[in-house]
Amino acid sequence: MTRRLTRILMLALTGFASILIVAVPVQPGATQWPMPDLLLMLCCYWVLRRPDCAPILVLFALGLIADMILMRPIGIGALTLVLITELLRAQIRTLRDTAFPLEWLTVAMLVGIGMLLQMALLWISLGTLPMPVEMAQYAGITILSYPAVALFCGGILGLRHRTSGKISYSNYLGEG
């Protein structure tokens, strides 16, 4: 129980740090490529490795914090984050035994679908739509950051696949 709470706290702190890394400009005033969505990649990796230590409420809260700090429309990024991670959570048994490139491809496809969903939600809400080229760059940079996030989480944080253990519904909601 203590180990699980420690991992959840580690997810929250690492997630908050990833938001701050994206929020701080690398070269102030210079035209630059968009920063990747490190929070999304971190949560995808975490859900695939330790789904019981990535409660949906923590993921949603991190998504809302990211929306506020990064000045995005409140809730759209959080909704996309939750939907992508829950789709991955549903595929854990399938992806657990696959090679990393296939896992990366699955995450990449979900990121692409998530970006399309964000554009659709912005269009429905009459928000300002980003240029499709900008969204493609953002999605591409985000997808390319997944191996670096995986290396950080696996190498430094020691987050690896669990070989045994059951996932219960109470763990899923963060109550157990």
TrEMBL record:
InterPro entries: Cell_shape_determining_MreD (IPR007227). It is a multi-pass membrane protein. Keywords: Cell membrane, Cell shape, Membrane, Transmembrane, Transmembrane helix. It comes from the Bacteria. GO terms for biological process: regulation of cell shape. Signal peptide: none annotated. It holds the Pfam family MreD. Its main location: membrane. The chain crosses the membrane at residues 56-84, 104-126, 138-159. Belongs to the MreD family. This is Rod shape-determining protein MreD. It comes from Pontivivens marinum.
